[in-house]
Amino acid sequence: MSNITLLEAVTQALAYELNHDENIVVFGEDVGKNGGVFRATAGLQKRFGERRVFDSPLAESMIAGLAIGMSAQGLKPVAEFQFMGFIYPAMNQIISHAARLRNRTRGRLHCPLVFRAPFGGGIHAPEHHSESTEALFAHIPGLQVVIPSSPKRAYGLLLAAMRNPDPVIFLEPKRIYRLVKQPVPDDGKALPLGTCFTLKTGEDVTLISWGASMHETMQAAAALEEEGISCEVIDVASIKPLDMNTILTSVEKTGRAVIIHEAAKSGGVGAEISAQIMENSLDALLAPVQRVTGYDVTMPYFELEKYYLPSVLRIKQSVLSIMA
Amino acid sequence: MTIFNLPDLGEGLPDAEIHEWFVKVGDEVTVDQPLVSMETAKAVVDVPCPEAGIIEKLYGKPGDIIQTGAPLVAFVEQKEQAAEDQGTVVGKLEENAHAADDDFIIGSASPNATRVKTTPAARLKAKRLNIDLKTISGTGENNLITLDDIQQAAAKQSIPPEGFEPLRGVRRAMLSSMVQSHQTVVPVSIFDEADVSAWMGKDDITVRIIRAICNAAKHEPALNAWFDTEHSARKCFNEVHLGLAMDNADGLFVPVIHDAQTQSDQALREQINAFKISVQDRTVPAEQLKGSTITLSNFGKFSGRFASPIIVPPSVAILAVGRLYEGVKSCDGTISSCHLLPLSLSFDHRAVTGGEATRFLGAVIESLK
Lengths: 324, 369
Fold this sequence. Notes:
- The complex is a heterodimer.
- By secondary structure, chain A is α/β, with parallel strands linked by helices.
- In chain A, 35% of the residues lie in helices and 19% in strands.
- In chain B, β18 and β19 form a beta hairpin.
- At the A-B interface, α7, β8, β9 and α9 of A face β9 and α2 of B.
């Protein structure tokens, strides 16, 4: 078993499921012949054929509509949006149909589909290529939103998403697509959806994050540990539904919570987590819940990205501000 | 093949001569490793390697002149990166060759431990009132400790243990003024006796002592003074506002005879008598309990000769008079009996010197002869 990247873990999960479930179909812009803009689907068309893995026209609304129709009739489509910033033309299909077909038909039809999209900034990309708008989807009843932050979790969670009977928005943090390599056994074992992952246990403060920011969060936790502050680190992973039990249990233990996300602050998923901590565990708090996030501005380009993304320094400062 | 051109080795040098090569074709080189020494018009300079790689070609041999900006060294093209197809990616993905295993716990790390359930406001109140939250049980929803619970715990905490009675009123005032004195004043007490045989039985003892204090205060105003701890400053008085320590069943009262130095013996006596009644009745007006510049404690009517009286800030001195007794004195080898009045003077050594205090006490004794 060789070490693979998060990107290769996505490919591995797609290949496993294509191989084991004949209803799986994979498509999107440049997904087939080219193997995807980041090579997430590299080699799949050659291996599984043009009927299972194929290119779509450059029309996001059509990609979503096609997937919804396929899923309602028994297939399990895994459709790729080339970048999260290109997903908005498909919003009507996703919100008005994918999210509510089960409800509308009183359970006669449902949509076992996965919409994959690379998301997040930090790769010096031009406009529309650095979006972190997971909160838009988390707000919609009927959609599940999943964000892996390591090769192992990418593999296990994508398998779970493909086996889920309802629509899953699967957002892949492209900044860490190739950052870390891990051994990921190709055993077809899914990880549970709707569950957080505790990456590190600690006593003094709970750091809550997801996606690429997990990377800086873990670095901040290590640095704080050297200063004698013990951090528990939680990868939310499932943005919707939120596993508040894990978060509350940890926050009730430490008494402090710092939420870190790349998306803009206002109306972000951090606000939802913070609100639920207030509703359920206010009495356990030793300090106000903190958020370290992107700013309420359009995601800047190139060099300015590093000032926008939550840095190790900003996370540390936030923790130190509530340790007194 | 990537080519490294000769950089400007000085300030605007047009060229340089190859002095000696340190590398040859096929060598694997690292960043900053010296490649070649070049002789310029000014000096021999080593040129460091700009990148890691393998040398493919050297443009010249020792003695050759190379123009600034002309090719110096060529490196073999790094083929590895080109080999891996990253697609028509927009932007640049960071890579890390380092592989790490991924340890994580699915869900929660630890079971929900028992904890104190309360609100931040209650927590703050408990901190202020010095209540340990672990010692009280909550009456709110799900055993939540409420603000009321904290308040009740605080009330309970202020009740003394069984058999003890809390100090109240004047006694409580005594407690706080004594504690304040002990925390701030640096007291010294000196003791002596005055022979009062000459007028014993003829004059009013208390009035004579007040006169003696007024007289001594004129000589040593440093003891008839206030001391301001915060500003380390003192204020000496010309007038004597004499605090007269008086005891009753409730505790200690110190009514003040204002401007004692201007009053007649009769006026002093009348005021003392009036104080005796008003202290007994607890009817001393508040303004008569304020403004003392020096205190007299005449405790000797009960028992005890000497004491170490406690100074009450801001004043700096207190004179205590013990029980008058018949003693003996030796004078010029002759022993005779006499009436002696024991005197104890405490002074605040922060504001008063030993010399001032002893001269003050000497003046009191002189006046009592």
